[in-house]
Design a protein that fits this description.
Largest sheet: 6 strands, mixed
Strand order of the largest sheet: 6-7-8-3-9-10
Structural class: alpha/beta
Amino acid sequence: MNVIEIKNLTKYYGDVKGCKNVNINVKQGEIFGFIGPNGAGKSTTIRSLLSLIYPTSGSVTIFGKDAIEFGSEVRKEIGYLPSEIFYYDKMKVIDLLNYSASFYEKDCSQKIRELSEIMELDLNRKIQDLSYGNKKKVGIVQGLLHSPKLLILDEPTSGLDPLMQQKFFNLIAEENKQGATVLFSSHILSEVQQLCNRVAIIKDGEIVSIQDVKALQNDNYKKFTIRGTGLDSNKFKIDGVSQIKEKDDEVTFFFKGNINEMVKIISSFKLSDMLVEEPTLEEIFMHYYE
């Protein structure tokens, strides 16, 4: 079952493209990554998904229901953490969270206490006295306090220190084990690599690839580093080779294709060292943005 189905979603702001022909399905129980640099169209897609803005064309369904027609209904089962957070500055944290909890037909008090303890959040402080990172913690607790079936997280870790980021990752993994489906938007690829099952890459408002995270690394380009004397980088300019860089007695490049052809080329040189490795997710990501 697909919890989220986005079909040919297009959103223009006047003549400016926010996203175009976006097609994404997120399965029940999945942690789905949505990656791209700032301005690529991630937040536009998410806001359309939540019917916070209306698409120019295309459709979005959540839990099998149209996200616009049944928006108020489906949002009861969604926990949303936006990339930018703004609150009532003079409210105490606990008052704000209790106010948020009042929108749901359940007692959220225990969950608020549990989440606040995990995130080391002082419930008695006023919002205006909090740092940006602590305000982000408030947003995390607010998004999870009603134990939603679907979590939509837009750049959730900005402002969190590394230790708190890891606590957050553990928290999301635990919510997922309890049955929550997660859409995780980020431009930090190591986060996606750590958490997600599948990933969609968006560029200039359009999806350029949807793959399993492991397949994205393992079934993609291999990274070659060749060291020796008399190396000629032009010899490596064959189909399947990209991002060739030459420096002193070293040549690096990415290759996808018949490995025997590459071995034949390499064997024509006198090498001092050679390294063949899996590219990082960051390096794979940059390939899509060449």
